[in-house]
Amino acid sequence: MSEPTDFLLAVEALTVSFDGFKAVDDLSFYVDPGEIRVIIGPNGAGKTTALDLICGKTRATSGSIRFRGKELTDMKEHEIVHAGVGRKFQNPTIYEDLSVFENLEVSFPRGRSVFGALVFKRDAEVRERVAEIAEMIFLTDHLEDRAEYLSHGQKQWLEIGMLLIQDPELLMLDEPVAGMSGSERIKTAELLHKIIEGRSVIVIEHDMKFVEDIAHKVTVLHQGRVISEGSMAHVQADPKVVEVYLGH
Ligand SMILES: Nc1ncnc2c1ncn2[C@@H]1O[C@H](COP(=O)(O)OP(=O)(O)OP(=O)(O)O)[C@@H](O)[C@H]1O
């Protein structure tokens, strides 16, 4: 059996209760390094709440969330970001009046660069990293464009880029392809396969074709609990999953 520290993320017996209603109820799941995990489940299953708990936006009532062996449940949101967990919400939160370059530049983590002698070197490093990320998110030709003129899909990619530039070890994406065209969805799947080198990704998604394209493993939630887990083929054939989806 694996030790808990072998997992990048170990969620165990996680519960949150809102006025007695358990939106997440005794939830356990484990994510490996380099894994793309997709969480699916009907509306209200607790998917978004689970991500809110991991990133510290919502406090757990009980249970544990260990990231590289470190307990997250008693950490503040910014400490969790600093520990290496990036979260993208459903609606893009980019700076509309800044260019693509500037959006990526402001997201570059600030370190010890305030020392004068390092500034020049730092600028070159930032430009290089922005160029690298822009290429990854298919926006090299739009670096000077104001973000407000990007398509909805491009805005989603830009926000993913703003997280990637911080080099998180765990990236969590809530419905990243919602509102995207078919070709944008294919490119987003490509992007996810590219970025998992050295990190893991958790995605909440409703588009089953997209889930099939990206998931290494699927976790199915219902009423705050895991009802099935495994490959896409495994969960699709699971009578409990069929029942939950068809019964609604
Ligand atoms: N802060 C809160 N206070 C009270 N109830 C909440 C709160 N946050 C979420 N809930 C409830 O918890 C349940 C789970 O919500 P959640 O948004 O996590 O579901 P979801 O699986 O992400 O659904 P969807 O697919 O519709 O986004 C819902 O019944 C929701 O109304």
TrEMBL record:
Keywords: ATP-binding, Nucleotide-binding, Transport. Signal peptide: none annotated. The keyword Glycosyltransferase does not apply. GO terms for molecular function: ATP binding. InterPro entries: ABC_AA/LPS_Transport, ABC_transporter-like_ATP-bd, ABC_transptr_urea_ATP-bd_UrtD, BCA_ABC_TP_C, P-loop_NTPase. Residues 9-248 form the ABC transporter domain. It holds the Pfam family BCA_ABC_TP_C. PANTHER family: CONSERVED COMPONENT OF ABC TRANSPORTER FOR NATURAL AMINO ACIDS-RELATED, HIGH-AFFINITY BRANCHED-CHAIN AMINO ACID TRANSPORT ATP-BINDING PROTEIN. This is Urea ABC transporter ATP-binding protein UrtD. It comes from Jiella mangrovi. The gene is urtD.
